[in-house]
Amino acid sequence: MSFPTIAIQFTIMDIATPVSASIAYGCMMIPWCLKPTFGYISDRYSIFSWGKRKPYIFFCSLLSSFLYINVYDYKDNFELFVTLLTLISTCVCFIDVCADSITVSYAKEEIENGLIQSNTWISRGTGTLMGFVLGGLLYKSTDAQNVLTFCCYIPLITCFIVWNITEYIYNAPSLQDLYTNLIQQNHFILILFFFHISPNYRVFYEYFLRETLNYDSDDFTYLSISSSMSFLCGLVAFKLYFRKLHLKQLLWNAVLLSSVLRLSQIGVVLGWFPYFQVVLLDGIVESFCGQLIMMPLAVVAAKLCNDGLEGSFFSFIMSIMNFGVFVGDETGALIAHFLSVTKVDFENLYILMLIGIAMDIIIAFMVLNKMSFYFEKYVSVSLDQTEEPLDPQDPEGGHVHQVPKKTVYTVDSQD
């Protein structure tokens, strides 16, 4: 939900210190660390004959719509305000889990690796871009309360269109099935966690841009829009070209390029070249490289899911990544506290940035050598081109006969 991002960002900046803001963002990340719970619920428990994913998307959209209407009324109580934002984050997370589960069930049966996920993420990137543009324009012309109130209509629309989705439904898995899948892939899970735990200084950098360089909502909107456009370009480039390359080398090159160019942020902080164009270009490159890092990991993760565990296992993989980000956020806040980086004192911010960038390179170098097996086994080898992918409208065709001891059927839009 990118639409209210600028409004929430500036509201938190107005009422909190950088350390408090970092903790608040960490709290809002907590539901994303609980994705396996949401995934197992959606895998295990269907609601009536409505399906396993669509009912949860419906009810969470309805609840988030209600919360958006009321959240701004409690901004003067910082703890309650963050709690309500965390509840909204929980609803969005549950929706994301269910949507990812549907995507993974399709991706497992595709002929060309990464194609369905690329298309899905391109659609998500387009929506993110539109959200930043429209949300930023509305915030500029009105205020944060109107942005959050208007935002309630977006999940409300989702409540109605979700029933047009056709989904695969497998037999309900047990906890033992999930445990077996996790044990089988525990090495990959640990690699993903360590890949995301570098100290994060993003919140403090944004405070510096606002307090020292006097960036306003227009500047942050332009930065968000440009990053979203780069995000989308990265997804399109991965779909059309990069997914056909050796993904391990792609990952390493993307990490290295992103880390080296982020050194320009230190130049901005130290006053060597505090120009908007430098900040803009850095954000564009970082967002583009971010997708070249994210997509290979998502493609491998989708291939590792056993049948019937699309929600549980894939969401566990994503939550491990989110938990790594959470650890990075809180580690960054802790280091900033020791370095005495505050809302008005950024003298030692460059040290925090150097630590974060160096850790990105060091960790990537350590873990990527451990990932060759996964890229070779699960990505390099495509499905037999003579086989037909499973058609959700034809449960008797495709690969369904290859799923041992599991019944596969579908819930169409008329259920």
Defining traits:
single chain; 415 residues; mainly alpha; two-stranded antiparallel sheet; 69% helix; globular
Write a concise synopsis of the structure shown.
The protein is an all-alpha fold and 415 residues long.
Tell me what you see in this structure.
The chain is mainly alpha-helical and 415 residues long. The protein has one domain: Growth Hormone, Chain: A (Up-down Bundle). The protein is 69% helix and 2% strand. A two-stranded antiparallel ribbon has the order 1-2. Helix 10 runs parallel beside helix 16 (310-338), helix 12 (217-240) crosses helix 15 and helix 13 (247-261) runs antiparallel to helix 17 (349-368). The protein is globular. The model is unreliable at 380-415 (pLDDT under 50).
CATH hierarchy, class: Mainly Alpha
Overall domain count: 1
DSSP strand tally: 2
Mean pLDDT: 78
Give the distance, in angstroms, between the N- and C-terminal Cα atoms: 28 Å
- Main sheet characteristics: 2 strands, antiparallel
Largest sheet, order of strands side by side? 1-2
